[in-house]
Amino acid sequence: MGKYGEDSKLIYDLKDQGGELLSLRYDLTVPFARYLAMNKLTNIKRYHIAKVYRRDNPAMTRGRYREFYQCDFDIAGNFDPMIPDAECLKIMCEILSSLQIGDFLVKVNDRRILDGMFAICGVSDSKFRTICSSVDKLDKVSWEEVKNEMVGEKGLAPEVADRIGDYVQQHGGVSLVEQLLQDPKLSQNKQALEGLGDLKLLFEYLTLFGIDDKISFDLSLARGLDYYTGVIYEAVLLQTPAQAGEEPLGVGSVAAGGRYDGLVGMFDPKGRKVPCVGLSIGVERIFSIVEQRLEALEEKVRTTETQVLVASAQKKLLEERLKLVSELWDAGIKAELLYKKNPKLLNQLQYCEEAGIPLVAIIGEQELKDGVIKLRSVTSREEVDVRREDLVEEIKRRTGQPLCIC
Amino acid sequence: MAERAALEELVKLQGERVRGLKQQKASAELIEEEVAKLLKLKAQLGPDESKQKFVLKTPKGTRDYSPRQMAVREKVFDVIIRCFKRHGAEVIDTPVFELKETLMGKYGEDSKLIYDLKDQGGELLSLRYDLTVPFARYLAMNKLTNIKRYHIAKVYRRDNPAMTRGRYREFYQCDFDIAGNFDPMIPDAECLKIMCEILSSLQIGDFLVKVNDRRILDGMFAICGVSDSKFRTICSSVDKLDKVSWEEVKNEMAVLLQTPAQAGEEPLGVGSVAAGGRYDGLVGMFDPKGRKVPCVGLSIGVERIFSIVEQRLEALEEKVRTTETQVLVASAQKKLLEERLKLVSELWDAGIKAELLYKKNPKLLNQLQYCEEAGIPLVAIIGEQELKDGVIKLRSVTSREEVREVAEDLKSGQNRDFNFYYGTTPFSYKAQEA
């Protein structure tokens, strides 16, 4: 209660059944802060992947659900400035690169820069949040539309809006940070200076981490500000431009995060602060993207990891199959057999093809007498006779498994 | 805000008035009147959120998992999942809540232990009580006639938790089930094989699997003269049959054995760590046409296994690592943060698990201490002289032996297969050479 502002109405409550009043968790950040305060921890680097619950109006096609995974990583503790913050951004970039879902950009801003910027432009404290949410729309709509909303709907004076416009339409690298540090008005604001100073340091570290080319200092990044107190960032995927030379458009955020130094203090009985910085990967969106890609590529996804099917060529060989499959399991090989006493060979081969099982070990009456098993590649159909005692090694060799039992 | 402050002031004044009256020993009637006014004022004030004392606890019957407990949990799940995969099982996941009507009528007396969600204007929901009913719902909903699946997830029961015995209101279940019409007893046998593989691999001691059959029990009670109506009570006297709510459940229970105090003593069971059986009628309860899908499965009692493994590690005084970090990047002198950041970044890019302290100028001793506490085996020390010479000092934390390595070779010397995305097997199936 009291942590999510307007979103509180989206919390799932449990029925009052006579005991404690309970609610399903809305995110992983508040439970994290509660965990830190409860255990009086002053530093930890932790990840947490779990489902959270929000009584949204789900737009299922856009991949928004009422129960969905969050993938959080946070560093809590008092450290030298910007080093953990830089590591969070490095992690975000590593993950998004490794997932191979396309080019991406990480927008970075700072709560203090926004505060200072709005202050010097003449935005009153009470309008801060609502102006922020307008400004944040700049990634999707034009400045004219944003300005109209601020002036027309939110009662902002047009001159103030214009001043804001001079700032928020800017984005760039560390040179923009340096430029703003020289800005006559902004440099008079203590908060903005702090934020700009930290961002400058951040960019130094990001360069050492080799990711400065993926980072954009974007003054219009202004959403999700409820508990952030410093640097904030958001990663967006870039669509390939239709025409060469077109500016790549963001198609939606796939990760976000920032520094939030005040949250744990809200839980600690003595109000002790534990500074935190972290990130959250938007995995549900990523699931959609990966699924779409696999469909487009018409790639078949295996749902099991079975390496070999133990099959029989004739009837009355169930006992032999059971014995062999058990030997393979005991040797750590992933194996299956059909739950039929006398399955047809063709059906067993078909099962392999449908499930993507690469190998089939065929037991036959003659081969039993000869002390061999026929090992066949399901795709190439090439067959070779393998001595019973060599079978485990041969399968492990072909499937790239280490010879020791895992 | 102002109204509240004013109210608070009124409450304070009224409280003082009541106290004054009591001191003066005014008439009981008068005091009662003024107390009533005070209570009314207090009621207007309502709960003060900003001053509310936070009761920092997890809900009754639940717990957080600390890094240490997670390390144990991860190891245990790893053993279990490997086994399920070895047997060709697919994995599914279902929502934590189901429609209330899905769960109603499935758990008999235990239904009162189901957590309901508050009626907030939408569908009536309840938290899942087990993974079997969701499984049956999944099969019926997707009209599946056969599947071999495992499902590891938390379930919810408003029990009276006996925390010391490892029983909670939120706890993990680890289910494996084979659904489908097959030749008799082959899948049943595989379930028992899996149970044995898992319990052996977990190395939690000797165990015994007790097996029985519902039809034998039925028959036995019948010939002994037990009436149908007394069946269930007699059953629970004979043994606690967990799954007796399913009409056709045969019962299998895996029981951990204690080492006998004296040679020759009969090993005693210390409690069930896994259970399962065949349940052919459940899916039919969900299917609109009542189509039956025979099922057989098992459930591993992981919470109890967590406790056992934790206890063993404590007894052995074994330190459990909570991270997998292979090397700490350290600096021997001041002003080497840049170099540390560059090097740790190179190691990460090469897939090496590395860390650095978040300090500009950390003391070497502190960095080494950090490694010892976390169990990090190697430390890569950057020093001014070494930088000039183009080398990094690589030191084993435990043996304190130093190995000088040339800077460029450092990555390749520790490189590991970094098959993060694909795990141990290809994520996508392409026509491949065997």
UniProtKB/TrEMBL annotation, chain A:
Residues 5-286 form the Class II Histidinyl-tRNA synthetase (HisRS)-like catalytic core domain. GO terms for biological process: histidyl-tRNA aminoacylation. The keyword Aminoacyl-tRNA synthetase applies. GO terms for molecular function: ATP binding; histidine-tRNA ligase activity; RNA binding. It comes from the Eukaryota. InterPro entries: aa-tRNA-synth_II/BPL/LPL, Anticodon-bd, Anticodon-bd_dom_sf, HisRS-like_core, HisRS/HisZ, HisRS_anticodon. It is an enzyme of class 6 (ligase). Residues 287-314 form a coiled coil. Residues 307-397 form the Anticodon-binding domain. It is found in: Cytoplasm. Its EC number is 6.1.1.21. Pfam families: HGTP_anticodon, tRNA-synt_His. Keywords: Aminoacyl-tRNA synthetase, ATP-binding, Coiled coil, Ligase, Nucleotide-binding, Phosphoprotein, Protein biosynthesis. The keyword Aminoacyl-tRNA synthetase applies. It catalyses: tRNA(His) + L-histidine + ATP = L-histidyl-tRNA(His) + AMP + diphosphate + H(+). SUPFAM superfamilies: Class II aaRS ABD-related, Class II aaRS and biotin synthetases. GO terms for cellular component: cytosol. L-histidine binds at D27, L28, T29, R54, Q70, D74, R223, Y227, Y228. Belongs to the class-II aminoacyl-tRNA synthetase family. Homodimer. This is histidine--tRNA ligase. It comes from Gorilla gorilla gorilla.
TrEMBL record, chain B:
It is an enzyme of class 6 (ligase). InterPro entries: aa-tRNA-synth_II, aa-tRNA-synth_II/BPL/LPL, Anticodon-bd, Anticodon-bd_dom_sf, HisRS-like_core, HisRS/HisZ, HisRS_anticodon, uS15_NS1_RNA-bd_sf. Residues 3-59 form the WHEP-TRS domain. SMART domains: WHEP-TRS. GO terms for cellular component: cytoplasm. Keywords: Aminoacyl-tRNA synthetase, ATP-binding, Coiled coil, Cytoplasm, Ligase, Nucleotide-binding, Phosphoprotein, Protein biosynthesis. Residues 306-333 form a coiled coil. SUPFAM superfamilies: Class II aaRS ABD-related, Class II aaRS and biotin synthetases, S15/NS1 RNA-binding domain. It comes from the Eukaryota. It is found in: Cytoplasm. PANTHER family: HISTIDINE--TRNA LIGASE, CYTOPLASMIC, HISTIDYL-TRNA SYNTHETASE. Catalyzes the ATP-dependent ligation of histidine to the 3'-end of its cognate tRNA, via the formation of an aminoacyl-adenylate intermediate (His-AMP). Plays a role in axon guidance. Homodimer. This is Histidine--tRNA ligase, cytoplasmic. It comes from Gorilla gorilla gorilla (Western lowland gorilla).
